[in-house]
UniProtKB/TrEMBL annotation:
The keyword Lipid metabolism does not apply. Its main location: membrane. Residues 428-437 have a biased composition (Low complexity). SUPFAM superfamilies: MFS general substrate transporter. The chain crosses the membrane at residues 37-56, 68-86, 164-184, 190-210, 246-265, 277-296, 308-327, 393-413. This is Major facilitator superfamily MFS_1. InterPro entries: MFS, MFS_trans_sf. It is found in: Cell membrane. GO terms for cellular component: plasma membrane. GO terms for molecular function: transmembrane transporter activity. The keyword Cell membrane applies.
Length: 509
């Protein structure tokens, strides 16, 4: 045990040292990564507890109905994330640390309450609250990232670092949570109680963030919908490209595909004679795919996050087509690996585009709307995945959706490039006419073509008859003599007032 503890401590020190390189410690990114690690660890504990109580502990038919009810309850309140939570977090532009700490505190309280409600109906609203607060934390953290990003790193690279931290936390905590749940007389309730303690640690780490997280000094704020446009060519080019809608469409398709394959393959592998090893392989493919997506996105999307989108769609299409042509359990897991990698890569590009192009004071709302759309599409894909269908048919339908999205996105990119070329080749607006300047020898060029000169003005102008002279007024008027002020009257003597008698004293006299 001593050797294991020493190895874990040594690994933690190495992770912290790697997280602080590249100026991350000075900018505050390392502190945000530590908070993200704790948040991801809590999410992993909640996921293990809910999956064990809703999926693995009941028969397949009952599990399908419970998962469907969970998806239905989860889908409805997420509509509030964009119109309510996003604007509320926008008002915390100068209190982001407090907002993050409050979210962690609320999640800890809900996790502790959920530990004693796993067998009742209250599990659904409590799980819903945890899920909504998890998305709210992600929205607030994404808005904080530009304030702590070092100058040496791009936004895609910063997002990839945080995603790697989240994946590492899930990979370490999830197996430990499964081991704790299998201890006699412990089970999943104690997993949630440990999760509550982890969230309380997140409260302390949120206040440990640097103070400039709460300051907007040096940031250029813009207001959407006010008719103010950027004057530089870069802003007009971005408006012509329309990168945000293209990125959002591609990310939504990939996120919905992940939700579909998560539930579709989970029930398909369970009903087709597969044991828990295949389900464990599916979970491993999901984790490894997320890590590969972060690695690919960090390497290829440093300058152009838009280029990650077509690459993501291409990977997802290749995996689904391979499984549709030759369906086996192994090819289905390979398709899940590629789709998860593509979704993680596309999400990095979407976050970088929002952080780059959206105004700072509306960035929370933009993240909230994107997270709402992503979650709703994931739930919709998971609901479709509950339908029983053969493996070949399911992957063929997924391939058709991805290929159709690639066709639409290709046309959109062609239109964007055409608009960019037209904007680049458009003639500049003619300058306003100015009055003819007086020629000077300082700007005289003997080789330049001479312009036709206007006829010179006459030297003498016609004389008009003089106007009659009026008598001039005196330069200064005589001042009136000063009038002496009368002496001030003495103040009247003050007469003392009789004491005022209260209503309870009048009856006694």
């Amino acid at each position: 045990m001593v050797n294991v503890g020493a190895g874990v401590a040594r690994g933690v020190r190495k992770l912290r040292a790697s997280a602080r390189r590249g100026g991350a410690e000075q900018s505050g990114l390392a502190s945000l990564m530590e908070l993200s690690f704790v948040n991801a660890a809590g999410d992993a504990l909640v996921t293990v507890a809910l999956a064990g109580s809703l999926f693995f502990a009941v028969p397949t038919g009952e599990a399908r109905s419970k998962v469907a009810l969970y998806l239905l309850i989860t889908m409805v309140p997420f509509v509030l994330l964009a119109p309510v939570i996003g604007p509320v977090l926008d008002r915390f532009a100068y209190g982001r640390r407090t907002a993050l700490a409050a979210i962690c505190l609320a999640r800890g309280m809900l996790a502790w309450q959920l530990a004693s409600s796993l067998d009742g109906v209250a599990v659904y609203p409590l799980a819903l609250g945890l899920l909504m607060l998890s998305r709210s934390f992600g929205v607030a953290r994404s808005a904080v990232i530009p304030r702590v990003a070092p100058r040496e790193l791009t936004l895609v690279k910063v997002n990839s670092r945080i995603s790697l931290v989240n994946i590492a936390a899930g990979a370490v905590v999830a197996p430990a949570a499964l081991g704790i749940a299998n201890i006699p007389y412990v089970g999943y309730p104690w997993v949630l109680r440990i999760c509550a303690i982890v969230y309380m640690i997140g409260v302390l780490l949120a206040f440990n963030l640097p103070k400039h997280v709460d300051s907007a000094a040096g940031e250029k704020r813009a207001f959407l919908g006010t008719g103010r446009f950027r004057r530089d060519i870069t802003g007009r080019l971005r408006r012509a490209l329309g990168g945000l809608p293209v990125a959002l469409r591609a990310s939504l398709v990939l996120r919905g595909l992940v939700g579909f394959l998560t539930f579709y393959l989970a029930f398909l592998l369970r009903t087709s004679g597969g044991n828990n090893l295949w389900l464990a392989g599916l979970a491993i493919c999901a984790g490894v795919g997320s890590g590969l997506g972060v690695f690919v996105g960090g390497r290829l999307g440093r300058k152009r996050p838009e280029a990650l989108l077509m690459l993501s769609l291409l990977m997802a299409a290749g995996g689904c087509l391979g499984a549709a042509v030759n369906y086996t359990k192994l090819t289905s897991l390979l398709a899940a690996l590629l789709v998860t990698t593509a979704s993680s890569t596309g999400k990095l590009g979407l976050d970088a585009i929002i952080q780059r192009d959206v105004a700072e004071d509306t960035r929370n709302s933009a993240f909230a709307r994107s997270e709402t759309a992503m979650q709703l599409v994931w739930v919709a894909g998971g609901a479709i995945g509950l339908i029983e269908m053969p493996g070949t048919l399911g992957f063929a339908a997924a391939s058709a959706v991805v290929l159709g999205t690639m066709f639409v996105e290709t046309r959109a990119l062609h239109r964007s490039r055409a608009a960019a070329r037209e904007l680049h080749n458009a003639p500049h607006a003619p300058a306003a006419p100015h009055a003819p300047a007086t020629p000077s020898m300082a700007h005289f060029d003997p080789g330049a073509p001479t312009q036709p000169q206007a006829p010179p003005l006459p030297q003498t102008l016609p004389q008009h008859p003089p106007l009659p002279q009026h008598p001039t007024l005196p330069q200064a008027l005589p001042q009136a003599p000063a009038v002496p002020r009368p002496p001030a009257a003495p103040d009247a003597p003050t007469v003392p007032r009789p004491p005022v008698r209260r209503w309870w004293e009048r009856g006694s006299s």
